Amino acid sequence: MGAYILRRLLLVIPTLLGIMIINFTLVQFVPGGPVEQVIARVQGEGDVFSGFAGGNEDVGEETFGSDSEYLGARGLPKEFIEELEREFGFDKPPLERFLNMMWNYMRLDFGESYFRKISVIDLVLEKMPVSITLGLWSTLLAYLVSIPLGIRKAVKDGTPFDTWTSGAIIVGYAIPGFLFAIMLVVLFAGGSYWQIFPLRGLTSDNFEDLTAMGKVLDYLWHITLPIVASTIAAFATLTLLTKNSFLDEIKKHYVMTARAKGLSERKVLYGHVFRNAMLIVIAGFPAVFIGVFFGGSVLIETIFSLDGLGRLGFEAAVARDYPVIFGTLFVFGLIGLVVGILSDLMYVLVDPRIDFEKRAG
Questions:
Q1: What fold does the segment set 120-360 form as a domain?
Q2: Which one-letter DSSP state was computed for residue 51?
Q3: Model confidence over 12-54: pLDDT tens digits?
């Protein structure tokens, strides 16, 4: 197993390098870079993309050259543009910029945000609590509900219970998370009906003055609606995955043998079937957690006014804040690859019969 883990760890390097190369290359062809963002703000246009509506043929070659790389820079001195390029590092060739960036990342130097004047690491740490809350509690809730429900559906396969719960699950899966979040706000956060839950933040303004138990209750009170909204899609998928996995195992010969020996249905189900059926469910844990933690919370954070990594990534992409974009991409890509290795270790922990080294050989 040690050799397998070592091979997987070594594969992390070229995989992560490939991710960074592809994204860095794509960014070079995307209009509206940081320099154009600054120019748009200087000229009071507010949004850089308004500069792409149409060119101005009166702009002379003596100011910006015939190709005029920055369409929004009309009327600004060429020296000002060159100074912006030097400040952002765009006076160097793309290859040199990429190599410098990767060398800094290897030394855990992720630079400073172009527009926030704060280091990328400090910015990520500042937003991390919100994303940890959404990712951890959403994944935990999904597993706590989906696994018992999926097992129950497998045991009651074909019964009215299985039918109506499947209908409810399909409806839940069909509703987008952000739409479900809006429904929760309308119903329970003072939208049109009941003012039961708060709409903003993770804690109340008087959080520091509360007792220990009061802080816990206040925290749970604030996260209830965001967690429920972000769990709905994972809940549906995980429940059906658990049910189908158990159905496949229940039909196997070892289950019939266990029943023939006189073991109770509960003993057969949880003593024999559970371990084998849960393999595929456990393997999906990293994907569920990473999906909620990194990518699935942008709209949820916006609706509930939570300032987490989802909004950070979206705002950095819109503002073309490259240090934030590439720094978070590198860190989260590395975490995702390592979590993939941990999922393999979880396979072995649940079922010691699995040997990845023999399979690789």
A1: MetI-like fold (1.10.3720)
A2: G
A3: 889 999 999 998 888 877 777 777 777 777 666 554 444 434 4
